[in-house]
Amino acid sequence: MKQNSVISWILPIVMVALFTRAPLAFGQATPPPYNTPGRNLKMACTYCHKMHGGDVVAEGDTVVEALCMSCHNGSYTDPVTGKTAVQVATHENSRTIYGTWRISCLGCHSPHYNAKADGSETDSTRCNTTTGCGNWMMVGNVVREASTTDGLARIRRPVIIDTLGNNKSGGRNPYTDDVMDGYYCSNTVTIDTPANSGAVRASNVVTIKTIYSHRFSVGQTIGIGGIADSSFNGKYTITSIPTAKTFTYSQTGPNATSGNGISSSGVVNDPNCYQPDPPNANDQIRKVAFYDNNTPTTAAVNQWAQPYIADPTTPGQKWYNGACNVCHTRTTHNRRDNSGGDRHNTDKACDSCHLHSNGWIK
Amino acid sequence: MRQQSPIELSSKVFSRQQLSRELCVAFWFLLLLTVATLGKAQTMDSPMRIAAGPPGEILVSDSVQDKVIALDTSTLAEDWSFDVQGTPMAVAYASNLVFIGNATTHNVEVYRLQGTPNGPGVTLNFVCNLGLTAPGTTGTIRIPSDIDIDKDSGLVFVVDSGERKVKVFDKAGNTVSELPSSTDGPLLSPTAITVDTTRQEVLVSDYGDPNGWFKANVPARIMIYSYSGTFLAKIDGGASDTNAQFDRPQGLDTDGQGHIFMAESLKGQIFVFDRATGALVKKLSSFGNQPGQLELPLDLVIDKKTGNLFVTNNMLKRIEVFPAAGGLQ
Questions:
Q1: What is the extent of the structural domain holding A204?
Q2: Is residue A300 part of a domain?
Q3: Does B223 touch chain A (CB under 8 A)?
Q4: What was the ipTM of the complex prediction?
Q5: What is the dotted CATH code of the domain comprising B16-327?
Q6: Could you give the CA distance from residue B47 to residue B62 in angstroms, rounded to a whole number?
Q7: Do the domain assignments include residue A24?
Q8: Of B210, B290, B315, the CB nearest to A69
Q9: What stretches of chain A show up as alpha helix (H) in DSSP?
Q10: Which of B142, B192, B295 sits opposite A62 (nearest CB)?
Q11: Looking at beta carbons, which residues of chain B come within 8 Å of A94?
Q12: What pLDDT, in 10s, does the model give residues A25-46?
């Protein structure tokens, strides 16, 4: 009797929970704006994930991008609410000296937490316990670093996808660990094998053949290391670039053919590169996160800035700036703190000109 | 093989003649893919819809560059482009008229192509908006997501994904009707369209309502209607055959031989269905960024003369080409 009695009150609760798909019944709730009271967007977990190893599984940055963009390409309207998913484009570069990269959606957004564009929705579980989050752009990649004592949040470095497919691991750019600095300032590329004449010295001119596009330039000092014939190794200045995968430099010596090894531009030898801070390949936390909008300081590129913004509607304080500045306080141009070259409109929000719909480019 | 290429090299034993033929086909396949990859990929930022253009050309809408770009079908080199005042989504062509679905103005704008295609000096001169809304005014098509045209009847079919309808116009711009014509087979989240002029059918990709929060779970599907809007059939993305399941159907086309080609934007594959049975016939390509692979394919078109299949490979900013209707022959 007692057992029947327990079942009689547990069963209805379980049934109701299943029927209403209460978040607690299935773990983490679907995030805003995908499940926001009042807005009526009700996306179930199964819209992105399938149980038991189905196909729509959000794993891998490019897959997640495809998942996001399969709705955010402008053609999707929610069947229940009639709201059309905003058309956006990822921030990327495909045609300049800075290589071919793309910032993953996950670099700025978390599919499991996403605030309203005006910053009025925040996630108290991820914000600063002392200062709170206030109204600021919230991205899921913000973390608190236990080892620090300033009590401020950090934003993780965005995942950069090599759109040329030159990646060496897991679909990520080989230079992800150093993101913007490393990508075009600390370029490293593998030299072809001896069998493929990866390194050839003839008439005191060495021709290096690389596996992938090397992206070096004439006049650049590069380091050569690991070549089977060690007489090739050392630091040299590039004299010509016959193709995207070959370059030459002068070196006195007997004619020879070898290969293997790597060639690297290296940040130390290139004055145009900004010194990484710190150059730690394992550091996934970018130490320059936000320009301090509350107490601005000059040339504060290395400071841990306040991550929250007092008034997100005021130009210069919108949360887009924070996202942009994750990289654009470190690049050699367009720094929000008014340092570096090409500075412009330092008192305006980036998104007043650069739109997500156009990949933040124009 | 990392990708499921249109030319499947299986473990079967080839005769010398067969092998020679296969290698020949493979050569042209790789050549086409190379052309597709190298072509003018650098000129596109977000290739979205694609349509057959004037002879020897395909038209591509770029929703980031705000352009419609005409590409040579043989070389994929850019012949000409047109700056759209707003965000172009859909694009179509018939009888020297270019139809552009403009998400900013909520119109389908009709332009007359002047000059010689395949060469410089092409201009597009505004003719009218479908529905005959005044130039420069906001139209009545909330999200003109895709367009297809029956060149024989002159009917223009426009998916309004915002209103979840197909709106039908004549080439003069007059409103004719809306699909579906009854409550049978309602569209829930339509994205793309094609018309099968042979069967006089309208096919619409629909994401469905896989959440099913307020009603029964409705998987993604391809909805099929008569020209008059009568619901005829659907191809269900939630089929019991897991291999045939799909989630984010986008661009469609038919090959005139009873096959429906559908771009599965999330899986990076082209699904080929048999219209008569609804069964999956074949899947082409795979998700990835290598030549022949797809990341977010949003539309496709079959060159009816050559059978070549052109796909907008959105995230990779290029057009992918699969020769001979994707290898069905």
A1: 187-264
A2: no
A3: no
A4: 0.81
A5: 2.120.10.30
A6: 5
A7: yes
A8: B315
A9: 2-20, 61-69, 179-185, 319-328
A10: B295
A11: 42, 45, 317
A12: 233 444 444 554 444 455 667 7
